[in-house]
Amino acid sequence: MDTAKFIARQVEEIKQTAGSGKTISALSGGVDSSVCTMLAARALGHKLKSIFIDDGLMREDEPKDVQKAFAALGVKVEIIDAKSEFFAALKGKLDPERKRKAFRNMFYSVFGRAVKKSGARFLIQGTIKADIIETKGGVKTQHNILEQIGIDPQKSYGFKLIEPLRELFKPDVRAVGRALGLPEKICQRMPFPGPGLACRVVGEVTPERVAIVRKATRIVEEELAVLKPFQAFAVLMNDQGTGVEKGKRKFGNIIIVRSVESQDALTAEPSPASWDVLRNVTQRILKEIPVVTRVAYEVTPKPPATIEYV
Ligand code: XMP
After folding, report:
1. For the segment 280-302, what is each residue's pLDDT rounded down to a tens digit?
2. Which are the contacts of 290, defined by CB distance < 8 A and separation ≥ 6?
3. 193 within ligand 1 shell (Cβ under 6 A)
4. Taking the CB of the first residue and of the last residue of the chain, which one, N or C, has fewer CB atoms within 10 A?
């Protein structure tokens, strides 16, 4: 792909579509939304307002880290604290698609409010080709896909969508990010799903359960970094496992460590991990998160499994 040409074309298209009004960029700190925000900032300058929704489902320190990284690039990011609204929407929901739907509705309602308040007409977001293919194919109703599942964003939430990356797969998105001057740390980031840690909590998503998987996620990312995986993360199961502490039985949580190799996320293979890596990650999770009694490494490819659990 000719990245320079792609950037020039998209910058022109964004300018044409958005016109002289305000546009909101939905930034999550992942590669796709970061690249999309940089493209939009190049096209619209101060007419772009970049918003990060703190939904309580992000990795440790994510909102502040993203704000700092973009400040260094000259892009001001506003953080909207919507943690309690998201947890209220997810309360009592166990079914994966019901959780996705609740997340999606809350996500676009919060953006709808921000768009209305700022007088903007457009929301620009980093949907990529794999997102569209999988939603159309029925694998899942990905949170950022609306038109393909019959939702008109204008009618439902009060804005039109601009999606400059919809024809690209992940490797091309990373290449565009590099050409736009995004730091390598952001371009190389592992994919992180829009609904965040909610995709990694089997069963009910509560602040307490998210806190467990958030701690485990940091440990997995640190310990598995040596594998340079496409994606590595922790999952909290809905069941419990018996453990023993100071000679007494105790019932605790079960964490799955998942690491996969992939090009486009449409298919994936489990990462071959050495015994040392598996032992270290297990020991750290058990020591640093005492409510966990069991850790297992997942070896299922996609298909038949998906990459995320929810
Ligand atoms: P699955 O689990 O379907 O995931 O094999 C394929 C890729 O998509 C990411 N993913 C999502 N990304 N919103 C997103 O922005 C979502 O709802 C979503 N669900 C999955 C996942 O992390 C993997 O890279």
Report:
1. 999 999 999 999 999 999 999 99
2. 252
3. yes
4. N
Cα 148 to ligand 1 centroid, rounded to whole Å: 16
Tens of pLDDT, residue by residue over 111-146, are 999 988 999 999 999 999 988 887 777 777 777 878
Q: Tell me which long-range contacts 59-62 makes (C-beta under 8 A, separation of at least 24).
A: 59/192, 59/196, 59/197, 59/214, 59/217, 59/218, 59/221, 60/214, 60/215, 60/217, 60/218, 62/29
Residue 163 near ligand 1, beta carbon < 6 Å? no
Edge-to-edge strand ranges of the sheet holding 23-26: 77-81, 48-54, 23-26, 122-124, 160-162
Distance CA 231, CA 225 (A): 10
Provide φ and ψ at 252, rounded to 5°: -140, 180
pTM for the full predicted model: 0.91
